[in-house]
Amino acid sequence: LSLAVRRRWPYPVFAIEATASVMYYGSGYPDGPNWLGVFVALYTVTAYGDERRVWIVRGGLTTLVGGWILAAFLHPPDIGWLAFRIGTAIMAAVLGESMRMRKVIAAEAQERAERAERTREEEARRRVDAERLHIAREVHDTVAHAIAVINVQAGVTAHVLDKRPEQVRDTLLTIEQTSA
């Protein structure tokens, strides 16, 4: 039953399963299926536990193996079966650590991809801003040149208005074209 909540509370479930296994094994009963629960709980602790998990797994695994060995002295089992239990427990811990590392590596890769995407978006936004600034400068230069031409033409018109009225029409047309 404790395995049903193993992902929510991996450490207490591992402690319950390890204690039950040592007690069952030490009571002299023939091996039953409860050792499977220990391996599932051990895998869960290593695969889904937090940062303290390394020390808890090492301590818990050492205590568990010590309990099995002590129980083996009380009720001598088949040594091959004890070695199988210890090896399988170590394998469950290594498998859980491998799964955890895969998840960590995948999360880091995802973070790097997201960071690269943000960098690309920022670079694209920076380029768009630079292009807008370039266009604004060109528009400013064009408008400033047109205003300068209009100013010169208006000055010429004011100067020649009385002396050469026929030229006034040409300069007004130039001002009109430039301002358009």
Total count of strands: 0
Strand content: under 5%
Which ranges are low-confidence, i.e. pLDDT below 50, for 5 or more consecutive residues? none
How do the helices and strands follow one another from N- to C-terminus? HHHHH
Q: How far do the termini sit from each other?
A: 85 Å
In this structure, how is the largest beta sheet organized? none
Q: Based on helices, strands and strand pairing, what is the structural class?
A: mainly alpha
Tell me, what's the shape?
rod-shaped
Characterization of this structure:
The chain is mainly alpha-helical and about 180 residues long. Helix content is about 85%, strand content about 0%. The protein has 5 helices and no strands. It has helices at about 10-25, 35-50, 55-75, 80-160, 165-180. Helix 2 (about 35-50) runs parallel beside helix 4 (about 80-160).
Short description:
The chain is mainly α and 180 residues long. Helices cover 84% and strands 0% of the residues.
